[in-house]
Design goal:
The chain is of the alpha+beta class. The protein has seven helices and four strands, in the order H-E-E-E-H-H-H-H-H-H-E. The protein has a four-stranded mixed β-sheet with strand order 3-2-1-4. Helix 1 packs across helix 2, helix 3 packs antiparallel against helix 4 and helix 3 packs antiparallel against helix 7. The protein is globular. The N and C termini lie far apart (40 Å).
């Protein structure tokens, strides 16, 4: 920490770096040809539109997950982090991490409280995903950060459309 900065400033800087990195160079941003489910998600408030595709294996694990679309840096970064985090995870893990991300973004709890809600194998995922919690200071941006998670949940539920409304 440099003179004149606080730990909070350093964390904001780190989190902004993670968002910018994933926003500029999103992981798993591609068309998936052989998928189990596909959903189009949109955030009518700001115009973000994404398509999430996933391939489930016989054990109901996310064997592969991808997305494409256009949106703000927050929604693209969130989708990128979501796909990177959830690839290879079970559907149950997806639901638990989704609940944790929504709670972090809405300000219902902090990263340590989110970790306490998760099993040990999932708690380490919260460290990077916690960067999305910065949107809680800007309520209109919560929907940007949670759109990919809503879309994936709808995909798993067999729906073809998802919205943040």
């Amino acid at each position: 920490m440099t003179a004149g900065t606080s730990l909070g400033d350093d964390l904001r800087s780190l989190y902004q770096g993670i968002i910018l990195d994933h926003g500029k160079s999103p992981r798993n941003f591609r068309v998936m040809e052989h998928y189990t489910c596909r959903v189009q998600g949109k955030n009518p408030m700001c115009g973000d539109k994404i398509v999430v595709t996933a391939k489930l294996d016989v054990n109901e694990r996310l064997e592969d997950i991808a997305f494409e679309g256009k949106g703000c840096a927050i929604s693209i970064a969130s989708a990128s982090m979501m796909t990177e985090t959830l690839k290879g995870k079970s559907i149950d893990a997806m639901w638990r991490l989704s609940k944790a991300v929504h709670g972090l973004c809405k300000g219902e709890f902090d990263a340590n409280e989110a970790k306490a809600l998760l099993s040990i194998d999932l708690a380490s995922s919260i460290d990077k995903l916690a960067s999305l919690s910065g949107v809680r200071q800007f309520p209109v941006r919560v929907k940007c950060a949670t759109l990919p998670w809503h879309a994936l949940a709808s995909c798993i539920e067999g729906k073809t459309q998802a919205t943040t409304e």
